[in-house]
Design brief:
Strand order of the largest sheet of chain B: 1-2-3
Number of domains of chain A: 1
Radius of gyration of chain A: 23 Å
Helix content of chain B: over 70%
Distance between the termini of chain A: 91 Å
Number of strands of chain A: 23
Shape of chain A: globular
Number of strands of chain B: 3
Order of helices and strands of chain B: HHHHHHHHEEEHHH
Oligomer: heterodimer
């Protein structure tokens, strides 16, 4: 009997751990999708598509009346069939994420804590906040997912950030029961799937997607970059019109300064070099 | 700070900064040894301020305040033991300690996106000027179907911090005029931004330069060219200065 219980528990745990959420191929192309309106202030930059459905209003974005200064690298969809498909895929994804069995309950501020790959963290009927930095660690399975199921609101404080350790932003899901607010100059990662509204306040950046089912997405001088792969498989197909491969960073500053110091040393001893090399 | 230098490649030069500081102190040894030590009680005020900052850092203000507290406490100790003359004599190596400090999150978060967009714009301009077709969409460059994203890591902060530090050290080594340190430090900002854009443009133009050893070698070579540009600027500043004086 104990063996049977253990086996069933392991099977249930495995199902929970291996559940992989996949965004639809249409909604996956959106950096921003709203249900009622998209409102942008300032020099917002959205990579991928931006859309609204069933609402129609999009303001503050170049390419659609009344115009910019916000910029969208993909296509703008206002209440068209493509946006409607994206919304229905969003509903499917939202329900799929909500149905994933919880592995832990979390009700306090996320700041200063580390959450691990395979975890499904649930805040059943409470709001969840982030002050400071939350770390998401996927070291044991870089293709795995981390899911947060938040019954009410998600609110991040100013300058808060999500620190990913070997995680793909596409594999991080924030299911928000009502509305999400990303604080001023925060750096946030993952797909935000909100039942109502999403607000990115001044200067916040989002490496993921802001997907609101019924209400508005409000932007203010933000950078929204959709991940290069779709969520779910961790190695999914490239997003059409997506951001492309990131250009590599410069060599570490340790290497740069070490090279520069060697150059400075050679420059400083240039008159003595022939002597040092045995020449008169 | 040690942890920050180990984990953040923008800040890993922090390991070399104390070595350079100690070398400068050793190089200036005759100057400060000649001074008579006149302990100053105001040093305790600095030490108390540093303790307050450290306490604030521990209770949640953050790593930056704790790191500044370390520098302030060193300055306080010098003032306590050697007095104002010693503090003045060691002001430059102590000021170099600023380059050890972790990035201030408020400034870094505000600067990253504009720097990304600036690097994208300049890189697109360089490619266009070179006759290479490029379409820029925000921070994304499309060079003949080859798309690269100028992400946060490409914002140029790494060049900026490294070159800023080296500009000050180079000015100290090659020129006795204190204003030259400020002039070269100011000049390092546009040079680093331009150099980063050149690096991004190169990666957009030649995909093999996007990653691996060629990418690292390209990054280092461009940085050496930045140093050469600083040397040329120093000569230029000196010429202008001499002409202005005469």
């Amino acid at each position: 009997m104990h063996k049977l219980i253990a086996l069933l528990s392991w099977a249930a745990l495995s199902v929970g751990l291996n559940a992989q959420i996949t965004l639809g191929t249409t909604v996956g192309t959106f950096g921003v999708l709203a249900g009622s309106t998209v409102t942008s202030t300032g020099n917002t930059l959205v990579s991928g598509n931006l859309g609204v459905s069933p609402g129609t209003a999009i303001t503050g974005i170049t390419g659609i009346a009344p115009g910019g200064p916000g910029i969208v690298s993909g296509t703008i969809h206002s209440a068209d069939a493509f946006a409607a498909t994206a919304q229905s895929e969003l509903t499917a994804a939202y329900n799929a994420v909500a149905a994933v069995p919880s592995t832990a309950t979390w009700t306090t501020d996320l700041g200063g804590h580390t959450f691990y790959v395979g975890g499904v963290y649930t805040a059943p009927s409470t709001s969840l906040g982030l002050t400071g930095t939350v770390t998401l660690d996927c070291t044991t399975n870089p293709n795995g997912q981390i899911i947060f199921q938040i019954g009410s609101t998600l609110t991040t404080a100013s300058n808060s950030s999500v620190n990913l350790v070997n995680c793909l932003p596409a594999n991080v899901f924030w299911l928000v029961g009502t509305s999400a607010t990303i604080g001023t100059t925060s750096s946030f990662y993952g797909n935000i799937l909100a039942q109502d509204a999403i607000t990115l306040t001044t200067g916040a950046s989002l490496h993921g997607r802001a997907l609101a089912r019924t209400a508005a997405v409000t932007l203010d001088t933000n950078a929204i970059t959709i991940p290069a792969t779709l969520g779910g498989t961790g190695g999914g197909p490239p997003v059409p019109g997506g951001p492309g491969l990131p250009a590599g960073a410069a060599p570490s500053s340790l290497i740069l300064v070490a090279i520069a110091l060697v150059c400075a040393g050679i420059y400083g001893t240039r008159k003595r070099l022939p002597k040092l090399m045995g020449r008169n | 700070m040690f942890e920050q230098w180990s984990n953040d490649e923008d800040m890993s030069h922090g390991f070399l900064v104390p070595i350079v500081i100690l070398w400068v102190v050793w190089r200036e040894r005759q100057r400060w040894r000649a001074l008579e030590a006149e302990p100053n009680w105001w040093g305790f005020a600095l030490l108390a301020a540093a303790a307050g900052m450290q306490f604030a850092s521990v209770i949640g203000v953050g790593l930056f305040a704790g790191s500044v507290a370390f520098l302030v406490s060193v300055a306080g100790a010098v003032l306590c033991l050697g007095g104002v003359a010693w503090l003045r004599a060691l002001a430059f190596p102590l000021a170099l300690g600023v380059f050890m400090l972790p990035k201030l999150a408020v400034v870094y978060n505000q600067a990253t996106l504009p720097l990304q967009l600036l690097a994208s714009r300049i890189a697109a301009g360089i490619l266009t000027a070179a006759g290479i077709g490029v379409i820029r969409e925000g921070n994304i460059l499309d060079v003949g179907g080859h798309r690269i994203a100028v992400v946060e890591a490409c914002d140029g902060i790494r060049y900026l911090l490294s070159l800023g530090f080296m500009a000050v050290v180079f000015a100290y080594l090659s020129d006795s005029k204190p204003w030259m340190r400020w002039a070269l430090l100011a000049a390092a900002v546009p040079i680093a931004i331009l150099a980063n854009a050149v690096r991004v443009a190169a990666a957009g133009w030649l995909p093999p330069l996007e990653a691996g050893v060629p990418h690292a070698v390209c990054g280092c070579l461009i940085f050496v060219l930045c140093l050469a540009a600083l040397m040329l600027l120093r000569r230029l500043f000196n010429k202008v200065y001499v002409r202005y004086q005469s």
